[in-house]
Write a structure and sequence with these properties.
Oligomer: single chain
Number of strands: 4
CATH superfamily: Transposase IS200-like
Number of helices: 4
Shape: globular
């Protein structure tokens, strides 16, 4: 059976989610988060996709990405996730999938964008990993509070 075509609207932000295979952990130590952010940054720049917000959780990621062309999300995530999977598999002497299926994505208008940034930012608070969103090191909250972040391409 054929896959349903992904709807990507160039220039609009998209809420993108991807979780670990079987909902298992994908980030095992601090180095993993840093490496993923580096890979995502390079892949996004290469494919002309802006990273507006993100939250990396132990077993999934939330990203708000604005692609410049219809293939931008696939190019960005395909490259970053393929390289990250190779990194984790090589280090742990594993084989196989790290990510569960295709990533999910939803295009958003300005009204939904504000709600989604809040949702993504509060993810670690809802998961009881931190009390305040700004305390989670692996999200863009601190950048939006002017602490700086090299991964973010532009701010919504």
């Amino acid at each position: 059976m054929a896959r349903i075509a992904r709807i990507v609207i160039p220039g609009l932000p998209h809420h993108v989610t991807q979780r670990g295979n079987r909902r298992e952990t994908i980030f095992f130590e601090d180095e993993d988060y840093f490496h993923y952010m580096d890979l995502l940054s390079v892949a996004a720049q290469k494919s002309g996709t802006e990273v507006w917000a993100y939250c990396l959780m132990p077993n999934h990621v939330h990203l708000i990405l604005a692609p410049s062309h219809g293939d931008g999300l696939r190019a960005t995530l395909g490259d970053a996730h393929r390289r990250y999977t190779r990194f984790i598999n090589a280090r742990n002497k594993w084989t196989g999938h790290l990510w569960q299926g295709r990533f999910g994505s939803v295009a958003m208008d300005e009204e939904h964008l504000a709600h989604c940034v809040r949702y993504v930012s509060l993810n670690p608070v809802r998961a009881k990993l931190v009390k305040r969103a700004r305390d989670w090191r692996w999200s863009s909250v601190r950048a939006h509070l002017n602490y700086g972040d090299s991964l973010l391409y532009s701010y919504p």
